Amino acid sequence: MHALAKKRHHKAAPLLLVVVLLALITAIGAFSATSATATSEASADDIADGERLFAANCASCHGLDAEGQDGVAPSLVGVGAAAVDFQVGTGRMPMQASGPQAPAKPVQFTQEEINQLAGWVASLGAGPAIPTAEQVDPALGDAANGMEVFRTNCAMCHGSIGGGGALTQGKFAPSLLETTPTHLYEAMLTGPQSMPVFNDANVTPEHKRDVIAYIDAQRAGSPGGLSLGAIGPVSEGLWAWLLLLGLIIASTVWVGARSS
Amino acid sequence: MGAKVNSAAAGTANYVDERTSIGGFVKFFARKLFPDHWSFMLGEIALYAFIILLLSGVFLTAFFVPSMTEVHYEGPYETMHGVAMTEAFASTLKTSFEVPGGLLIRQIHHWSALLFVAAIMTHMCRVFFTGAFRKPRELNWLIGFSLMVLALAAGFTGYSLPDDVLSGNGLRIIDGVIKGIPLIGTYISYWLFGGEYPGVDIIPRLFTAHILIVPALILALIGLHLFLVFLHKHTQYPGGGKTHKNVVGLPLFPVYTAKAGGFFFVVFAIVALVASVFTINPVWNYGPYDPSPVSAGTQPDWYILFVDGALRLMPGWLFGLPLEWEILGYTISWNILIPSLIIPGIFFAIIALYPWIEAWATGDKGERHVLDRPRNVPVRTGIGVAMIMFYVLLVIEGSNDIVASLFHLSLNDITIFLQWAIFIIPPLSFWITKRICMGLQRKDRELVLHGHESGTIVRHENGEYIEVHTPLDEQEVWLRVNYPNHKPLEIADEFNDRGVRRKGYKWDRFKQKLSRFYYEERVEPVTWEEYQEALHHHDHGPSAQGEAEAAEAQQADAQLTNEWDKQDKAGAADK
User: Which end of chain B lies in a sparser environment, N or C, as judged by fewer CB atoms within 10 Å?
Assistant: First the structure.
């Protein structure tokens, strides 16, 4: 204790304190920065690369400063890394042609490039981060609760198990059966295109994971056999006429052709 | 050994016959003749689908609990763990996932329900387009129509039983439709649901309707339907030797008993195959009923889609005027009434009354056992196609969201397109069909008068080229000339010679107008004289035929003359 008391009055103490404080601030800053882009870990280099990628591929619509253009493209300031990861990671962006809605298509960038873009957009203003692997792990979710959350919030557009459905004026809610858990989470968090935002107060992160578990449970396929697109009785009716009645009428022709 | 078995069989048969006199019936049925054609088996498909429904339905009643008591799910299906649901839904899940073979039987039951209605409608189309509803079969048409309506009722009550979100939404629409009936609608709804929708009574009530009332009625009417088929004898397609007074075919035993019996197993096998490969009505996806959520792709089974489509098609406002009126505190929702009750009501009434409508136009009082070729009654065929188009357009509108997402179209555009199409396409398809039929009739005339194109080109000595036409054989000619050639009705004058207006004139006038609509524009079948003249004309052609062949043709002609005459006499006798 004595030694410590002695050292407190060391002439280098204020300097040391400043150094320690600075180190702490940097550490906190760095920590908060990593939590904002948990999986992307965007370095300054990455952000710079992201800016270049953005200027080359996105700026024609969103503008060089990503502030958007009226009637053309929205501002991306504050949309967060999650929005970029979803839009670019599912191939929706860059948009191929203007239309009622940007459809998913083959992805144009590597995951590294997407992370660089996301890092740059995230650096423009605070926004939702890309979720961690744990946040989107279907094994940790409760599929039964997910079913209830899903049918209260999602099924009216995406169908009872996420097979997709139509919206007005050519827009549509896509099928979710091929969507990755991370993209599902990001879509709920950022509300892309016609979709509303389901923020963490609205649907908690645990409930989001339950929804992912519910969708994941559908991927095993239907217990009843082929699912016919899981879009309800219309496809069942079509198959009843074309396949079932079709086969049977073909056999009436066969049976009827025998004796006459 | 064989003799022993035979004598044992004979002994048993004799024992039964001595106590029931059943031998006479067996003999009667075994010798009953039936004409052969694949399209006569369409009704049979419906019958077999119904038998499959009864068999699989009995299995399902052993496990289904028609109760709306709330329970929490404890079965093996992961996404339902602990979820609150009615016993009806829980027992459906149990049947699907815990009862061995339960899911397969459920799927067989549902697929054969879809097949049942589809087969009935296909059978109705066959009967309609061939004119098999004409005297004496009008009542049997009406029975068949009632069976179709009952099949819809059976389907809908069954669809609602599992108490899942999908069927609950369907039930809610029906509830809305019922409440749309002016004055009494709300009372009917409260009476049906035992209070405010959904209540706790509807599932047991639908269960009774689905497993007792509706199938009992269907069974009784099928019995009557088949009895009348036996009584009237089966219709037959036109052809040489087939008249309104005979039946050309094979006896029921042994050929048809074997065919029909075997065909049952063919139908069952195909249903079982489809049911084991394709999921139908995955209630575990929809979840237990809760009035709040409605998922995308919420539709009734296909046979109710036309009502759903009519509701989707109907605008709430028309030319700036609301279609919901309030009169003396009562609301009249034309936007519900017109699409869900008035239009289906008119549509079904036309179907039910069609045999009489056509009889008024035709004025034909004779029995008609030989079927029409659809082309020979162009207006009827046109009406049939127009009605099918009307129905199909409503079904497409009922599936508008599926169509929109499948073809990347705008949902709104589909609805606006169909709002116009429903008025334009049915009349247009009537007109096109009528023209096609008349074109085919002209083609028939052409064939009878000039024969088939043989593809053989002959050069005459004077350098003229002609194509040799092969004359039609007797059967081919018969098919093309021998059909009822109806003409517009002639009616008595409005006033008699004393200037008094006669009773029933307006009704006659209506029938005459209808008759003109049907038969004013027509292609006359080739007459005997025209045929003779054409033959005569051909004789001047190159004598490609040997003399023997010519003589043979002459003989065939002579036979044909007799038949042609006979037919004319039969036709005259009917009048």
Answer: N
A 215-234: CB under 8 A from B: 217-218, 222-228, 230-234
Contact assessment for residue A134 and residue A140, using Cβ atoms and an 8 Å cutoff: yes
Do residues A128 and A81 lie in contact, with contact meaning Cβ atoms separated by under 8 Å? Answer: yes
The verdict on residue A255 lying in a domain is no
- Residue for token pair 């035979």: B6
Confidence at residue B241, expressed as pLDDT on a 0 to 100 scale: 83
Residues A92 and A83: beta-carbon distance below 8 Å: no
Residue of B nearest to A229 (CA): B279
- Which B residues in the span 505-534 are in contact with A, Cβ-Cβ below 8 Å? none
Partner residue opposite A227 with nearest CB, options B263, B279, B411: B279
One-letter amino acid of B490: E
Which pLDDT belongs to residue B572?
Answer: 44
Cis peptide before B198 (omega within 30 of 0): yes
Residue B416 located in a structural domain: no
Report residue A69 as tokens: 């253009």
Q: Which of B296, B399, B79, B292 is nearest to A159 (CA)?
A: B296
> B405 and A248 in contact by Cβ < 8 A?
no
Q: What is the CATH number of the domain that holds B252?
A: 1.20.810.10
At B233-265, the pLDDT tens digits run 999 998 888 888 888 888 888 888 888 899 999
Q: Which domain holds residue A200?
A: 138-230
Hey, is the C-beta of A242 within 8 angstroms of any chain B C-beta?
no
Specify burial of residue A24 (Cβ count, 10 A radius: 0-12, 13-18, 19+): exposed
Side-chain-side CA neighbours of A131 within 13 Å: the count stands at 23
Those residues of chain B that have pLDDT short of 50 are 540-547, 571-575
Q: What is the pLDDT of residues B65-106, one digit of tens each?
A: 999 999 999 999 988 999 999 999 999 999 999 999 999 999
Residues 187-216 of B with CB under 8 A from A: none
Residue A12 located in a structural domain: no
SS3 category, B427: helix
Exposure b/e, B67-80, CB count within 10 A at least 16 = b = bbeebebeeebebb
Q: What is the pLDDT of residue B461?
A: 92
Kindly provide the ipTM of the predicted complex, given to two decimals: 0.87
Task: Name the residue type at position B476.
Answer: E
Q: How far is CA B206 from the centre of its chain?
A: 26
| Pairing mode, strands A165-166 and A172-173 | antiparallel
What residue numbers bound the domain in which B156 lies?
A: 28-303
